[in-house]
# Entry
Amino acid sequence: MNSDRRRQLLKIVRYGLGVAALAWISQQAKWGHVVETIRGMNPIAVVVILVLTVLGVLSRFTMWHVLLNALRRTPFSTAARTTLTVNFINQVIPSRVSGRSLAPVVLRQYTRYDWNELVPIAGFHTALYAVLNGAVALVGLALFASSLSKGLLVAVGASAALYLVVGPSILLMGTQLEGAGRVAVAARNRVGIGRVPLVGSFADRFFGALPTFGADAADTFERLAADYSTIALYAAGWTFAMMVVPGVRTWLLLNAAGVGFSPPVLLPVVLVMAYTVTLLPLTPGGVGVAEASATLVLVALGVPASIAAPTILIDRFLGVYLPAFAGWIPAMRLNVSSVLSEQE
# Structure
């Protein structure tokens, strides 16, 4: 079997795994009961869920905004378009890390800033995101390991460990960015970004035309790493978007179904831990696998499968898939030829 056929087979397996996982979740839910639960929800709870969802998306915008603003005053709309576009790309690439590797070209499109600013910003964003996810997932494992099956422990533990390897590694390498163009090409070949539908064709051209980075990029990264107020603001945005909003939203949905979770303050930790598996390159964007993992975790912690499955699906739809779909519009407007033709 040649390499092209192996790649095609792997793609089919990944998409098939995602579809199978979603099908399993759908079978666990009593959808008639779900519809009745939603209809019977307190209107205030519905409003709170919708408002929180909007605030969560805005909070994700701030994560890019604070990093961009640390170097130059940047419009909030630029951070918004960057977030939506990168989120869309993450749903068609089988790993969050490889998806985020395209962030510099997205930032270049919207800002026209120097590459020596954009690559450190994108790398620092990925590093902080990975460290925060990995640390919270590790806390979740420490608290709930005894309740999880061996399979879940392995999957979540491997994901958390990978996050905690990726994040610190980027931070350590951030001051050694000379020759990053050549490194990016090697990374592209390893993760197979050039073969990804919709973004693969311009990814090849982008990495091929990427300039060589030197001391300026390293200095930029060091400035960000030493800016503790920016790091604190980023962490606050991440905490609200990735923990508070999903935690409260899921708690309200569980309460509406007549199922509690105790203590509720730990529900955000549980969700971060459960969703950590999206880092593993199993399915595009972790579709299906993330929902299956989170459902199994909630079931292991006492939530009935018929309630856990639809609750997780609703949370993922509002928190991940809806914003990613919105990102399709700015993603399709990317003028990659213009981005690659401009040389500093």
Q: What stands out?
A: The chain has 17 helices and no strands.
